[in-house]
Amino acid sequence: MKLAISGKGGVGKTTIASTLVRIFAEDHPRVFAIDADPDACLAQGVGIERQVAQEHRPVIELKEIIDAKNAGGGAFFTLNPDVDEILEEYCLKKDNINFLRMGGLKKGGEACYCKENSFLNSVVNSLLLDRNDVVILDMGAGIEHLSRGTARGVDAMLVVVEPSLNSVGTALQVKKMSEDLGINRVYFIGNKVRTEKEKEFLSSKLPQDLLLGIIPYDDEAVDTAMEDGVAISPQGIIYKTLKEIKKRLEEEVGNRDI
Amino acid sequence: MKLAISGKGGVGKTTIASTLVRIFAEDHPRVFAIDADPDACLAQGVGIERQVAQEHRPVIELKEIIDAKNAGGGAFFTLNPDVDEILEEYCLKKDNINFLRMGGLKKGGEACYCKENSFLNSVVNSLLLDRNDVVILDMGAGIEHLSRGTARGVDAMLVVVEPSLNSVGTALQVKKMSEDLGINRVYFIGNKVRTEKEKEFLSSKLPQDLLLGIIPYDDEAVDTAMEDGVAISPQGIIYKTLKEIKKRLEEEVGNRDI
């Protein structure tokens, strides 16, 4: 099962992506956690130290190796099944979690991340998965990864939404653009919901059958933001709500043929 | 004076950018408010209706006109002083505010926003300003606009920071990349600060002389997020703190020769 997490900046994509990775890793032998945002912090959320993650080699380096091998062989290449083996070298492992990051930091004015996005798409599509493997992609904020088609080929797009008009606007735009990409399963996850009014707001703005769940606002995520390490504890309401959402995902996405 | 507003997703860039635009427009005859994020909502923050802004022609169309004119004339072009006149057609006006947006929405998989970012840079650099004109650019979340160099040429980069390690990490990265671009004045604005502990956290993590101000958390911004229209009232603490920050900007940036 391959899932991408998207939504407007600040809605909680990385918190939700990293927590889902941990929950799936409880009963799946291999979960790939892929950081597709040059500014994201997925590693910390799954318990890998910030510094260690930042120094780890990004997947884009593999492209340079392939390019060097294929020099003179034309502009196109296909990742062959061996990629799985090579990819092992790019994974930072923590228990059942295999962490990968798309690209490294660049200098100001150096270049866009088009190459990284395009190569990540090839890698995700080439990953040969066992039936129980899970891939979770934490996308960049906003909609450019969709106009680029980075997550083309995932089984479902999960859009995180907080109770604001702007966040809902982005979410509906993500749905439309995901469908352009041929991703037919797009679901919404409500987040940071404080009041009954906010819950009703989200329920009224989003298609009911696609709203996988609503995560209540919890000071836990704010209070731990100034500290290093995993912010979300398995005892808190965020983790518990996401466990329910994970069950629905397995029912709706997991049992179908990929 | 040309200013760019950046920072991690969700820190409050658009709220701060739009409020600064309104404050500068109180005593400056012409303020350009430029939305440089394909997913942003700067227009609503300055009182322009969502629908009207979305249907307004984006600046990138001007490039297509120039390209058509120069067909066969080589790959390079320079915007000449006439650009100011032509740009008038791309501005949505509201009192002293001239709103411009970088690019339109695209389909999923259609293209990146590299062309839009690069052209926006030319436009911002070509704007001939009177001494009292102000340009405020609301950048996309994260750091890719810096690796692209979209805001190269502004007089100052304002980085919005909330009390979290991730937000501080992005802010310091923005500072470094801005300096790569030759933007030597980089300032920080603390936002959504609830407690004395959070205030101390930001003060301890950021260079004191570059921290222009700290905006307290205010339910106003959350409570109005589900409604259309301008969220920040001139009577609230967010507006008042930004008025002080605007004064400092005029002292530190405005009085120097551009």
TrEMBL record, chains A, B:
Ranges for domain CobQ/CobB/MinD/ParA nucleotide binding: 4-225
UniProt entry keywords in alphabetical sequence: ATP-binding, Nucleotide-binding
The keyword Secreted appears for this protein: no
SUPFAM superfamilies: P-loop containing nucleoside triphosphate hydrolases
GO CC terms of this entry: cytoplasmic side of plasma membrane; cytosol
Matching Pfam families: CbiA
InterPro entries: CobQ/CobB/MinD/ParA_Nub-bd_dom, CooC, P-loop_NTPase, ParA/MinD_ATPase
Coiled-coil boundaries: none
GO BP, one annotated term: negative regulation of cell division
A GO molecular-function annotation: ATP binding
PANTHER family found in the cross-reference section: SEPTUM SITE-DETERMINING PROTEIN MIND HOMOLOG, CHLOROPLASTIC, SEPTUM SITE-DETERMINING PROTEIN MIND HOMOLOG, CHLOROPLASTIC-RELATED
Protein name: CO dehydrogenase maturation factor
